[in-house]
């Protein structure tokens, strides 16, 4: 009991201290993996501050960045087909749910970090376009006695079918962005979309710039998650929303056993057969197990300064959507 209490006190002091350090933004300070159960670094871990995890491997922080870059450079061409095969299309529903949860308002400025091949950005553009079209239709229906010419003119004068909404896709990997741009061309997305090469830990954007920040299946790959969360907070406007879709902790024991079996026995095999890349898919399943639980991640988001932080577990907790606001 006494040990538990002193641990709790030590954890609390650690958390307060890291918060103070972060608020001061002292140069050189970076709280990194591995963490204790409350997302707090321990003294024994201080010595290994430059070490982190790459899946189940312990590597230096520099090595992790390079390895993650190599993984996505290697899988980029087969990324979309692999996701459909591995999840039997379920990842599409999770991504749709992220955009439905966002429920963007007309004129929303979205930053999609670790946006890769554009799945979230394209869903956002389709959503705001449909929303804007619906608004125009409702306006026309409400106006009685309009002539056919007036109705046609209204449609033709529609200069911005997105109603002012915009999305910036930011990713550290050139190959993923290249595939994304090709997909955008093929799907007819041009307006309201920008592609930026950049690191989630040091975003190349001004403070208070975006209404919404999304990150889907990206934050797990970032070396300093707390740094990425602080950057999310910085670039959001006051009132802006943070939304993260990420693998999480399965809450059903039967699903958990099947999922583990499927993850370790099937996914790397699919990776080898379809993408010729066992190792990257081994990394995927291992990195999922290293990521904090719903509650731990919620606490990390709060530590970065977000408020009203909530989460929703989907598919028995295989993934979760976390939400927070910059107030
Ligand atoms: C390198 O890093 C990455 C690379 C990427 O390409 C992507 C990402 C980021 C990730 C995404 C964008 C999402 C990708 C999706 C996944 C990783 C998959 C998530 C998994 C699921 C939605 C399915 C979860 C599965 C279960 C709960 C267990 C159900 C599974 C079974 C009944 C099969 C159990 C398997 C065995 C016992 C092994 C023997 C089976 C075989 C050899 C046959 C193979 C079977 C299949 C292909 C069936 C698979 C079945 C499903 C998917 C059914 C789904 C069912 C439910 C959700 C309940 C990235 O970071
Ligand atoms: C699994 S993909 C997710 C892509 C997309 N968001 C989706 O949902 O399909 C992970 C992406 O995170 C990117 N990534 C990894 N570390 C990053 C970092 N530090 N900054 C920005 N992007 C990063 C990778 O290049 C890759 O494109």
From TrEMBL:
Main subcellular location: mitochondrion
GO molecular function: 2-methoxy-6-polyprenyl-1,4-benzoquinol methyltransferase activity
Location relative to the cell: Mitochondrion inner membrane
EC class: transferase
Any one Gene Ontology cellular component term annotated for this protein: extrinsic component of mitochondrial inner membrane
GO BP annotations, alphabetical order: methylation
InterPro entries: SAM-dependent_MTases_sf (IPR029063), UbiE/COQ5_MeTrFase (IPR004033), UbiE/COQ5_MeTrFase_CS (IPR023576)
Membrane topology, as annotated: Peripheral membrane protein
Its EC number(s): 2.1.1.201
Record Pfam families: Ubie_methyltran (PF01209)
Substrates-to-products reaction catalysed: 2-methoxy-6-(all-trans-decaprenyl)benzene-1,4-diol + S-adenosyl-L-methionine = 5-methoxy-2-methyl-3-(all-trans-decaprenyl)benzene-1,4-diol + S-adenosyl-L-homocysteine + H(+)
Highest taxon in the source lineage: Eukaryota
Binding locations of S-adenosyl-L-methionine: 117, 171, 199-200
Gene3D superfamilies: Vaccinia Virus protein VP39
SUPFAM superfamilies for this protein: S-adenosyl-L-methionine-dependent methyltransferases (SSF53335)
Family membership noted in the UniProt record: Belongs to the class I-like SAM-binding methyltransferase superfamily. MenG/UbiE family.
Summary of subunit composition and partner proteins: Component of a multi-subunit COQ enzyme complex, composed of at least COQ3, COQ4, COQ5, COQ6, COQ7 and COQ9. Interacts with PYURF; the interaction is direct, stabilizes COQ5 protein and associates PYURF with COQ enzyme complex.
Role of this protein: Methyltransferase required for the conversion of 2-decaprenyl-6-methoxy-1,4-benzoquinol (DDMQH2) to 2-decaprenyl-3-methyl-6-methoxy-1,4-benzoquinol (DMQH2).
Record's protein name: 2-methoxy-6-polyprenyl-1,4-benzoquinol methylase, mitochondrial
Organism (species): Enhydra lutris kenyoni (northern sea otter)
Gene encoding the protein: LOC111156431
């Amino acid at each position: 009991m006494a040990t538990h209490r002193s641990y709790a006190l030590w954890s609390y002091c650690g958390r307060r201290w890291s918060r103070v350090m972060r608020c001061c933004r002292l140069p050189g300070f970076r709280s990194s993996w591995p963490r204790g159960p409350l997302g707090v670094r321990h003294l024994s871990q201080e010595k290994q501050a430059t070490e982190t995890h790459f899946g189940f491997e312990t590597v230096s922080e520099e090595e992790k960045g390079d390895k993650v870059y190599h993984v996505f450079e290697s899988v980029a061409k087969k990324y979309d087909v692999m996701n459909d095969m591995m999840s039997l299309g379920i990842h599409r529903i999770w991504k749709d749910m992220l955009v439905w949860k966002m429920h963007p308002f007309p004129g929303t400025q979205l930053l999609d970090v670790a946006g890769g091949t554009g799945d979230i950005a394209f869903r956002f553009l389709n959503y705001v376009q449909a929303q804007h079209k619906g608004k125009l239709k409702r306006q026309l229906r409400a106006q009685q006695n309009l002539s056919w010419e007036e109705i046609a003119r209204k449609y033709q004068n529609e200069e911005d079918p997105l109603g002012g909404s915009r999305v910036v896709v930011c990713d550290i990997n050139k190959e993923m962005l290249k595939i994304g741009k090709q997909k955008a061309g093929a799907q007819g997305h041009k307006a309201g979309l920008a592609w930026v090469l950049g690191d989630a830990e040091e975003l190349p954007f001004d403070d208070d710039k975006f209404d919404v920040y999304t990150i889907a299946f990206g934050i797990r790959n970032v070396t300093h998650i707390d740094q990425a969360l602080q950057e999310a907070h910085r670039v959001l406007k006051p009132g802006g929303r943070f939304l993260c879709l990420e693998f999480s902790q399965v809450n059903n024991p039967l699903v958990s056993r099947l999922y583990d079996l499927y993850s370790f026995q099937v996914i790397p095999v699919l990776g080898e057969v379809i993408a010729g890349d066992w190792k990257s898919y081994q990394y995927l399943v291992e990195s999922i197990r290293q990521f904090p639980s719903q509650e731990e991640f919620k606490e990390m988001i709060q530590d970065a300064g977000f408020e009203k932080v909530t989460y929703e577990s989907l598919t028995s907790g295989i993934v979760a959507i976390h939400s927070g606001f910059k107030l």
